[in-house]
Design goal:
- Helices cover about 35% and strands about 15% of the residues.
- The protein is built from 12 helices and 12 strands.
- It has about 350 residues and is of the alpha/beta class.
- The longest helix has 25 residues.
- The chain has a 7-stranded mixed β-sheet. A 5-stranded mixed β-sheet has the order 5-6-7-9-8.
- It starts with 10 loop residues before the first helix and ends with a strand.
- It folds into 2 domains: about 30 residues; about 290 residues, Metallo-dependent phosphatases (Purple Acid Phosphatase, chain A, domain 2), CATH 3.60.21.
- It binds 2-acetamido-2-deoxy-beta-D-glucopyranose (4 copies).
- One 2-acetamido-2-deoxy-beta-D-glucopyranose binds next to loops.
- Keywords: Membrane, Transmembrane, Transmembrane helix.
- This is Vacuolar endopolyphosphatase.
- InterPro entries: Calcineurin-like_PHP, Metallo-depent_PP-like.
- It holds the Pfam family Metallophos.
- GO terms for molecular function: hydrolase activity.
Length: about 350
Amino acid sequence: MSRIPEIRRSPLVSLFRTLTFGITIALFIRYALAKLDINKVLNIKQPDLNIYFDLPNRTIGDFPVRVYAIGDIHGDFNNALDILSAAGVVSPVYPFEWTAGNATLVQTGDVVDRGPDTRFLFKWFDELSTQAEQQGGRIVRLLGNHEFMNAKGDWRYVHYGDLVSYPEPYIENRKYDWGPEGEIGDLLITKYNVTFKDETSRSHFMHAGLSPEWGLKEDFVNSMGHEVLEMFMKAEELPDELKGFWGIKGPMWYRGYAQLPMEIACEVASNVTKALNVDRLVMGHTPQFSGIRSRCNGQIVLIDTGLSTAYSGERAVLRILQNERTNIVEAVYRDRVVKL
Ligand SMILES: *[C@@H]1O[C@H](CO)[C@@H](O)[C@H](O)[C@H]1NC(C)=O
Ligand SMILES: *[C@@H]1O[C@H](CO)[C@@H](O)[C@H](O)[C@H]1NC(C)=O
Ligand SMILES: *[C@@H]1O[C@H](CO)[C@@H](O)[C@H](O)[C@H]1NC(C)=O
Ligand SMILES: *[C@@H]1O[C@H](CO)[C@@H](O)[C@H](O)[C@H]1NC(C)=O
């Protein structure tokens, strides 16, 4: 039998073919990338600057006092970035820096759970906080019931992506991170609080809201919160005098301001705002999926809009603008600003 003679290619032809093939692929990829809007791919949107000019002849610079507040973020960096950048608080592009000058941003807790970006969010807020301080601004970071739950070892709502953001063994490493020696644990102990009263804008901020039964002294609630937090981290039983803090009417769980019938809610809010000497109580915790909700002539402001993908509610930031003449309280959305 005669063998079919092999067609022998010169190595030069081979090389030529390989090169042509490689170059074609490279050109194709380059073309495809040029056609792609990378901002769209990364889900980065440019801020709508017109959002600053929603009222005639008004610019953000007219207001020396600017206070922003964002509610429950629940592990969703993208959505938090989306609305914070639309409101002009941070840059929409890497490295997502503070752009709000000497403004104040309050985050009312529940950064963790239901989404994967927990670790990144805690670090990001810490970096933003340093940047804000360098510009005369600040970030006030408050604790939510979900931060306490994680410190306590109640991980029912932990997102898989959060867990596997740690090296193996995941559970041990995450536990350590949330303990007193861990990075997140240390941040919670040293940088986070329970309540915050801003004297300038006469606003009180807290995760779930301060029920009248629950002591009106902020220093008291803040120090008690830290005591509870550290006991949770050490897996210690709460003594009777601290149990109320973690109770259904405590500062981490109360839903009265969001759910009580109008008349009663307004009476409670009126009593508590008077006692605290503020104009409004701002809180997260009870989601309002269609947007920031104001009750009782603005004495109650509910800012948890379920902005994380887990809920897909509206993305919103509360903005308080103040100068010698006026004090404007409004909800900033990506496409509109609504006066409250
Ligand atoms: C806005 O500015 C224009 C031009 O300066 C002025 O004519 C107009 O009255 C102003 N409008 C308001 C609402 O102040
Ligand atoms: C922020 O800066 C502006 C302009 O420099 C100043 O008028 C204002 O008092 C500052 N506000 C705060 C809260 O420091
Ligand atoms: C928490 O607030 C109290 C005032 O009530 C303050 O003394 C304390 O320094 C604050 N702690 C942190 C970690 O910000
Ligand atoms: C509000 O305060 C008044 C006067 O102290 C008190 O009589 C009333 O019971 C309070 N209302 C509520 C709902 O706490």
